[in-house]
Amino acid sequence: MTKVIAHRGSKGTHPENTIAAFLEAVDCQCDGIELDVQYTKDKVLVVIHDNSVDRTTNGRGEVDHLTLQEIQQLDAGSWFDEIYRDQRVPLLTEVLELLKEREFKGLLNIEIKTDEKPYMGIEEDLVKVMQSQPWPFDYLYSSFNLASLELAQQLDPTAPKAYIIGVSPKKIKQARGLSFISAIHPKIDWVKAQGERISAYPKAVRPWTVNDELDMQDCFRKKIAGIHTDYPREAMRYRRLMYP
Ligand code: G3P
Ligand code: MG
């Protein structure tokens, strides 16, 4: 059955990449959770999507120009809704501990956000955290940046690696030939353009961002490996209706 993966927590209904969004994902019992990891100025792994804090907090500046202490003072929820004003940019370790405490048993998709900034050393630090204890959930590393995945493969060879791809035929072909890449995460547009041929692709395919009900149903019918969605609760409901 197609896995439902909560994109940035539950981005559609909660402030993305916050504890509130991850709690919602756990609560709706979806199969997976995706989050984005970046470095602060003092090289702490934090969970935030953009390279700057401007869009999703009340602060200003690039994530890697702010210390953890500076970032932790920011309100990461009010921009979405005033009721989330207590939300902060979480540390990766905070999210991991939360998932453990809430007995999340699904798949955690850790996106290494090195497509715009290389963040030297981030893969090593990330793998150290992931190997620091036996987490009660499965995890995989994903990235738009192949070099980060190659490094993660050297450091943590048993964890799956997924190559995030837009719609580039070149990258899709390249991914086919890389044995250490177990899955591709393309844009939903690419999957739709493939039609029924998608089932012949030799690796797991988990598109993003699948928010439209008909697209979700189409992916479920085609038995696509997984979908990243901003609305995991709704997606779970649609899937249950199709497969009671
Ligand atoms: O991993 C799928 C998706 O998260 C990639 O795009 O920009 O939302 O991180 P983005
Ligand atoms: Mg992401």
TrEMBL record:
Question: Start and end of every GP-PDE domain?
Answer: 2-239
Any matching Pfam family: GDPD
Q: Which domain of life is it from?
A: Bacteria
Q: Which positions carry the signal peptide feature in this UniProt record?
A: none
Q: Name one GO biological process term.
A: lipid metabolic process
Q: Which InterPro entries match?
A: GP_PDE_dom (IPR030395), PLC-like_Pdiesterase_TIM-brl (IPR017946)
A molecular-function term among this protein's GO annotations: phosphoric diester hydrolase activity
Against PANTHER family, the record matches this protein to: GLYCEROPHOSPHODIESTER PHOSPHODIESTERASE, CYTOPLASMIC (PTHR46211:SF1), GLYCEROPHOSPHORYL DIESTER PHOSPHODIESTERASE (PTHR46211)
What name does this protein carry?
Glycerophosphodiester phosphodiesterase
What is the scientific name of the source organism? Vagococcus allomyrinae
